[in-house]
Amino acid sequence: MRRLERYPAGFDTRGRTHEARIMIRKLHIDALWDDEAKVWLATSADVARLCVEAETWAGMMEEVRLILPDLMALNDQSADRFALTFRAESHLDVARAS
Questions:
Q1: Do the beta carbons of residue 20 and residue 77 sit within 8 Å?
Q2: Structural domain includes residue 51
Q3: Which CATH number does the domain housing residue 52 bear?
Q4: Residue 53 and residue 5: Cα distance in Å, rounded?
Q5: Is residue 25 part of a domain?
Q6: pLDDT value at position 60?
Q7: Distance in angstroms (rounded) separating the CA atoms of residues 51 and 48
Q8: What is the Cα–Cα distance from 40 to 60, expressed in whole angstroms?
Q9: pLDDT band at 7 (very low <50, low <70, confident <90, very high)
Q10: How far apart are CA 63 and CA 58, in angstroms?
Q11: CA–CA separation, 8 vs 16, rounded Å?
């Protein structure tokens, strides 16, 4: 019978790395196209004070990516990494054909 390598307090360390656990915070970002201003607007219920505008979808995502770590730190909501889900919704009224 093979003897187990034991860590203090009885933890079995075989096949495990000793890296610290990474905290990933999942956030939802709501995006809205402002047709009058011709910009995408990003806000979030998960991130207080987030309000980003950009002329393109990709530009909006990049602006959020750049500002998010500092804004989260200001809100005392830090994490090692952030997983962002961007949501956009459009509504269209269509008249019945006559």
A1: no
A2: yes
A3: 3.30.2390.10
A4: 55
A5: no
A6: 97
A7: 9
A8: 6
A9: very low
A10: 9
A11: 15
Residues 25-80 have pLDDT tens digits of 899 999 999 989 999 999 999 999 999 999 999 999 999 999 998 998 898 887 78
Q: Name all contacts of 85-91 with Cβ < 8 Å and 24+ positions apart.
A: 85/26, 85/27, 85/28, 85/29, 86/29, 86/31, 86/42, 86/61, 87/28, 87/29, 87/30, 87/31, 88/30, 88/31, 88/32, 88/33, 88/57, 89/32, 90/33
CB 80 within 8 A of CB 20: no
3-state secondary structure 48-73: CCCEEEECCHHHHHHHHHHHHHHHHH
How far apart are alpha carbons 67 and 12 in whole angstroms? 41
Boundaries of domain holding 69: 30-88
